[in-house]
UniProtKB/TrEMBL annotation, chain A:
Stored InterPro entries: Ntn_hydrolases_N, Proteasome_beta4, Proteasome_sua/b, Proteasome_suB-type
PROSITE patterns: PROTEASOME_BETA_2
Provenance organism: Porphyridium purpureum (Red alga)
SUPFAM superfamilies: N-terminal nucleophile aminohydrolases (Ntn hydrolases)
Family per record: Belongs to the peptidase T1B family.
Name assigned to this protein: Proteasome subunit beta
Lineage of the species this protein comes from: Eukaryota, Rhodophyta, Bangiophyceae, Porphyridiales, Porphyridiaceae
Primary location recorded for the protein, binned into one broad class: cytoplasm
Domain of life: Eukaryota
Automatic annotation (TrEMBL), chain B:
Family statement: Belongs to the peptidase T1A family.
Compositional bias segments (type: Low complexity): 252-266
Signal peptide: none
Proteasome alpha-type subunits domain segment(s): 6-28
UniProt source species: Porphyridium purpureum (Red alga)
Quaternary assembly: The 26S proteasome consists of a 20S proteasome core and two 19S regulatory subunits.
Region (Disordered) location: 245-266
CDD domains given in the database record: proteasome_alpha_type_1 (cd03749)
Gene3D superfamilies linked: Glutamine Phosphoribosylpyrophosphate, subunit 1, domain 1
Chief location of this protein within or outside the cell: cytoplasm
Keyword entries, A-Z: Cytoplasm, Nucleus, Proteasome
GO BP terms, alphabetized: ubiquitin-dependent protein catabolic process
Protein name per its UniProtKB record: Proteasome subunit alpha type
Length: 245, 266
């Protein structure tokens, strides 16, 4: 049985047959990483949307400000992320129009997104994303994630995509409960560099966002400095050690 | 009010710009027995007088939990109140499910008000014949709201609705300025005393564990109802008040500087 839709659309026209929905992602972003700090929370992603092995869109933002206390970053299908951005903006506008001063907390925003993702999954028409939510409310940082099937949790350190395999161990090693936003930014840069070296779908152009008591700050895109003159890398297999590749 | 030629339909205005059917619906609220509500900075208390149709019948319940942080007291058509109760519970649970956080009071009451308003503007419907006192605690503190068949809602420091509620309101007006700083116990005391004002001249000559129920909610205090025998300890404030009054009367009679011991012990 084909995934998605399933029912036959009545009324004829050019698209007879079962309704087709997202089966597989096409234009994808890779990892998003996040760290909870004592004075805020920081997330990072690169600025690449890949089309298979082609680095198609090299300077796009995969991070989005939802409220003055919350940002989201997403890997996975980029068009679905754009849909999520529209949806969350719509929610925040609705809240504003209620005109009662009540603001959705980052946790509430996270849970709302979980409901959206899980609902779509139940319709067998998922938004193919891994979304990281980072917020700061009432003096406390919150960091959570939700994926295309609605699995969600909160944690001190979060990573998606290849970042999960290569980055999360490094994050866990470096994490301390009193880590500061400034230290975390440096840490995330280092890990993004590792991901650029070793993940074929991550670029060295990155973006970092921090949420603190002063609000949301999303950086400009900037390139990571990289080092390609490690002797063993330069010598490579000629030195007899094939493992440097 | 008297019948007139503009009062048959909810969809008809009178030349004075009034919709009489809405006002008649509000009369239904006044027919219900009294409920009293008051709040401090941290808690809200509701006290209700439960009528019974006969000796054989139970006393009609007027307090309903909506969520652990919200509850209501009703006055008017009980069946209509059940509909609103079910609606409010669904709204609260849905909010909790979607946002993982208790529903803010103001939004819940607004939802009730908007639903009530719909019933005042359709030829096929009639207004809800019940008024609610909504008591709850959310991130912005303790709140007491009143909703109305008209679709209006108001926030109060203290209020009463139902039969002879004006007497309770008079008591509340005298004391409300002190409520903000009171403890839960003192708040309950005022609630009982205010409720007592509404029985003074009716056939229920006094508040008993059978005809009185109260509830409270607030900071670190989920909705708690006090009914039947548990009400007894709250009714003791009435005995203390009686002693106070008798003490006053005694003092006046004896014209002595020394107040009787009873007054010191309240």
């Amino acid at each position: 049985m084909k995934i998605g839709g399933g029912h036959v659309r009545g009324g004829g026209g050019a698209a007879d047959g079962p309704v087709k929905v997202t089966q597989t992602p096409y234009v994808v972003g890779s990892s998003v990483l996040g760290v909870k700090c004592i004075d805020g929370v920081v997330i990072s992603s690169d600025t690449l949307a890949s089309y298979g092995s082609m680095a198609k869109f090299r300077k796009i933002s995969r991070i989005h400000k939802v409220s003055d206390a919350c940002v989201i970053g997403a890997g996975g299908e980029f068009s679905d992320f754009q849909e999520i951005k529209k949806t969350m903006d719509g929610v925040m506008i609705e809240q504003f129009c209620m005109d009662d001063g009540y603001v959705l907390t980052p946790s509430a925003i996270h849970q709302y997104l979980v409901r959206v993702m899980y609902g779509r999954r139940n319709k067998m028409d998922p938004l193919w994303n891994q979304v990281v939510m980072a917020g700061f409310h009432d003096g406390k940082a919150t960091l959570g994630m939700v994926d295309q099937v609605g699995s969600n949790f909160e944690s001190e350190v979060i990573a998606t995509g290849y970042g999960l395999y290569m980055g999360l161990p490094l994050l866990r090693n470096a994490y301390r409960p009193d880590i500061t936003v400034a230290e975390a930014k440096k840490l995330l840069e280092d890990i993004m560099r590792v991901l650029f070296y070793r993940d074929a779908r991550t670029s060295n152009s990155i973006q970092i966002a921090a949420v603190t008591k002063d609000g949301v700050e999303i950086s400009e895109f900037y390139d990571l400095e990289t080092k390609w003159d490690y002797q063993r890398f330069v010598d490579g297999a000629r030195s007899g050690d094939v493992s440097t590749w | 009010m008297f019948r007139n030629q503009y009062d048959t339909d909810i969809t008809t205005y009178s030349p004075q710009g009034r919709v009489h059917q809405i006002e008649y619906a509000m009369e239904a609220v006044k027919q219900g027995s009294a409920v009293v509500g008051l709040r401090s900075a941290t808690h809200v208390v509701l006290a209700t007088l439960k009528r019974s149709s006969s000796e054989l019948a139970s006393n009609q319940r007027k307090l309903f939990e909506i969520d652990s942080h919200v509850g209501i007291a009703i006055a008017g058509l009980t069946a209509d109140a059940r509909v609103l109760t079910r609606f409010m519970r669904a709204e609260c649970h849905n909010h909790q499910y979607v946002y993982e956080t208790p529903m803010p009071l103001s939004r819940l009451v607004l939802a009730v008000a908007d639903k009530s308003q719909v019933a005042t503007q359709r030829a096929s419907k009639r207004p809800f014949g019940v008024g609610l006192l909504v008591a709850g605690y959310d991130t912005t503190g303790a709140h007491l709201y009143q909703t109305c068949p008209s679709g209006n809602y108001f926030e109060y420091e203290a209020f009463a609705i139902g039969a002879r509620s004006q007497s309770a309101k008079t008591y509340l007006e005298k004391h409300f300025e002190s409520f903000a700083a009171l403890s839960l116990e003192e708040l309950c005391r005022h609630a009982i005393l205010a409720l007592q004002e509404t029985v003074a001249s009716s056939k229920d000559t006094e508040l008993t564990t059978r005809n009185t129920a109260l509830a409270f909610v607030g900071r670190d205090t989920p909705w708690t109802m006090v009914e039947d025998d548990s009400v007894e300890e709250y009714l003791l404030v009435l005995d203390a008040e009686d002693e106070l009054e008798e003490g006053d009367a005694d003092a006046a009679r004896q014209q002595t500087q020394q107040p009787p011991a009873a007054m010191d012990e309240s």
